[in-house]
Design a protein that fits this description.
single chain; about 325 residues; Rossmann fold; eight-stranded mixed sheet
Amino acid sequence: MKKKLHPALRPWLRDFNARAAYLAAMGFRQTPTNTREFLARLTARYVTKIPEIAEVRDDLAPTGAFSVPLRIYHPDPAEELPVLVFFHGGGHMCGSVTVYDPICRKLAAAAQHIVVSADYRLAPENPYPAGVDDALGVVRTVTDLLAERRVRFRNELSIAGDSAGGALCASVGRLMQFETGRRIKRQVLIYPSLDYTLSLPSVEENADGYMLQTAKVVWYMDNYFPRGVNRRDVSPLFGEFTDKLPETLVVTAGFCPLRDEGAAYCRKVQEVGVKARQLHFDNMIHAYLCMEDLVSDTCAETYEAVGAFLNGKEF
């Protein structure tokens, strides 16, 4: 049976593709600046129902040479809640704590976790492995920082991210599975980038017409990775999988070029005996959480499922 796009996405994609074709004919050139502007405008336009969170504060994670800016969302400061470190998407080149502020508020409200959103360094100014180093540094130090700031929290740490942020989560989980004394309980990977070789069928099947084109994914990666990096070796999909990995939820979209790598990663986690589940929306495109007003039903289902998973419940 042929999959069908969500009805609200059809006219939006028609207009988007027509505009993209017009700009291409006029000689439009992709740059980090206009890419960052697009994601910021998209999210601001279509994520408009923004919940109030009891306490929101900014801070810095002293992770080494670079202190990573953080925004901390505590939905109930009087309670000791679990901690969720969030890494935003944007192809390792765009996105920010500011752009993802409404999404982090929704995560904090849905999961009743303290959400710590990290403003990790971006390419091309800061290529790989700067973002991974920042992500690792935040996860390793976040509970110490919260204790120092006298934030009430439960000593239970999970991580989440969408797209490139999902890649950072999987990279952190991959590296920290061998560390003792610091455990990540759960990870949520939302339409994640996990195969930097782009070797699976959905990369070709969904190459054009669904906002995130495969050509743009290639452009992101060419800006992210310095020459000489073996992209297979650093792909989370091809890393070592052990039973020390976090319990995993992978969210995938039927019209996303990254769909198949998310599904393959979920299977590999299951094969080593770790609880993992794939939540698949056959009628969605990449980055749909940034388009909530168009697909509010799917976004509500996603937040509800993520909240249930992070609290160890079925959904």
